[in-house]
Amino acid sequence: MSIKWRLTAWYTSILAVMLVLFGASIYGFVRFYTYGEVKNRLVEQAERIVNSQNFSLTQGLDFYLEPSQAQRLEDAQLYVQIHNYTSGNSRFSRNMLDRELVFPVPEVNSASDSNGFQNMTISGYSFILYQVPIHLNGKVIGLVQLGAYTGAEDRLLERMKSILFIGGLISVVLASTFGLFLARKSMEPIGKVIEAANGIQTGNDLSVRIDYEGPHDEIGGLIGTVNSMLGRMEGFYNDLDEAYSTQRRFVSDASHELRTPLTTIRGNVDLLKKIWQSEEEETSGMDAEAIRKLSLEAVTDIAGESERMSRLVNDMLSLARADAGQIMAKEMLPLEPLVEEVIRRAQFLPRNATWIQGDMSMLGAVSVNGNKDYLQQMLFIFIENAFKYTPSGSVTMDAIRADEQIGLRISDTGIGMDRSEVPHIFERFYRADPSRGVTPGTGLGLSIAKWIIDEHEGSVEVLTRLGEGTTFVIWLPAVFHALPE
């Protein structure tokens, strides 16, 4: 059974029980007070009748009703019967004689126990009968029986019972109908949640959201939570999909980059095998010097490609550590000696451009919270990159300051790049098209440098113009100490 049917069943059951209890209470209350009023009249009139009799005369004196008293009783729809146990005679009010009604008279022995009310039907008429024994000298000599016709009250109570029953039944049916309608209306958002969940289960569109314009109740809170969960799932899915795409692109580019050196190495190895394993007649015409020279060229190519593969593998390992969330050990470092060491070692790098040390006075009292090895690796990446793309001209490094940050600026007068390429230069394996296949490199250096900068909570600024050169400014948060006087 669905929730809306269970809610309707519970609601209907509770309402039916409440209506039964309410109807029974109302019916009992009305019945009690309706018959209670009749009984009060009977008791009052019975006391008057008993008090009006004269028992002080000789025993066996007959009882009587005053005409005016009898008329009042008849007008009040009360029926009186007085039985004399000594004579065996009974006196009746005129309305009883007219209708030929006779109340049953109990035996004298049980008459003293007859004081009270009885409900009875005589000749098709319903009565409430009140009996009061008459005593003389401790002995029962008579019995006053006073009855009230209750046909009107019985009909009223029957009608009331029917009205309560039919009204309750109609109320239950209407309440069940409207309850089912409201339960369906209330459960519609839950159906939308189920549809959205099924849509996600059968497809991959996580942008689906559940529209809800109702109040911010429990269902509204549930839908809000589900929408938030879908949003987070969409974010996780997009991040995971982007990670998978990056991984696939990384594997594809790595395979492409590794294929070239492996092909070169394999070709040179095959060449050496042919040279060293060939028979004399196959190498006739080639002197020992030519064979030695050819072998040396092949070994040189193998060494160069092996070195290139080694750099590529090291770069890939660095990025793999970055992807794995490796925590970089940091400490407070004075920046000036770190940069001076980089500048000194940079002049020994292979280059065609002039290496110029700019103004480094800003670094005199500056410290950064970082890792020395990674910071130097990052600077060497930018410097080597500048040397590679500056076939002639100069490469300059200096320092600048802006607020609480120190900037290390590396400028070259090389080939530069188009501005449209700037957003992609930190992507893995990305290399500008004019330089691809011309300038050596793996396309991973700037990706590693960007990771190191991010780990140091820094940023990088790129200024470039095609054919005029490129400037990188690495901004790092720094601590500036007071200079000694």
Report the total helices: 10
Largest sheet: 5 strands, antiparallel
Biggest sheet: strands side by side, in what order?
2-1-5-4-3
Helix/sheet category: alpha+beta
**Rg (C-alpha, Å):** 57 Å
DSSP, total strands: 13
Explained architecture:
The chain has 485 residues and is α+β, with helices and mostly antiparallel strands. The protein is 53% helix and 18% strand. It contains ten helices and 13 strands. It has helices spanning 3-52, 67-75, 94-99, 108-111, 151-202, 218-277, 288-323, 335-346, 372-388, 445-455, and strands spanning 78-84, 90-92, 116-122, 125-136, 139-149, 331-334, 354-357, 366-370, 394-402, 405-412, 459-465, 469-477, 479-480. The strands form three sheets. A five-stranded antiparallel β-sheet has the order 2-1-5-4-3. Strands 7-9-10-12-11 form a five-stranded mixed β-sheet, with helices on one face. α5 (151-202) packs parallel to α6 (218-277) and α6 (218-277) packs antiparallel against α7. The model is unreliable at 56-61 and 433-438 (pLDDT under 50).
